[in-house]
Amino acid sequence: MSETLFHKILRREIPADIVFEDEHLFAFRDIAPQAPIHVLFVPKQDFATLNDVPEDAAVVIGRLASAAARYAKEQGFAEDGYRIVMNCNGDAGQTVFQIHLHLLAGAPLGRFGTQG
Ligand code: AMP
Description:
Elements: H1 5-10, E1 18-21, E2 25-29, E3 37-43, H2 58-75, E4 82-85, H3 89-92, E5 101-105
This protein binds adenosine monophosphate (AMP).
């Protein structure tokens, strides 16, 4: 997998508002938030898309979801609600080819799917 801007964020070569980091993953605020709270959770193990994650690495995805839920509880919006999203490839609008989970919260969220 080639280098992405998220690698540069992890190495602090590009500024970002990093809200969490441990040995497995890191999380930072999205630069173009689609909700009042929009945080990206990125594993330190590299996969370009969800299609590239083998079944024996499924724990990598589980850790992202667990970290997002923990963050929501710590920040006090877990009971109000939130959405987690992973975009895969073109039809989903994936733009950074290093898997990441979006956490969206802070207001009632619209439905999703195709437009119109
Ligand atoms: P995706 O479209 O699912 O690949 O998500 C990529 C996300 O990365 C988008 O929501 C972008 O707004 C976000 N993004 C791009 N560049 C940066 C950056 N420098 N800092 C934080 N988020 C970024």
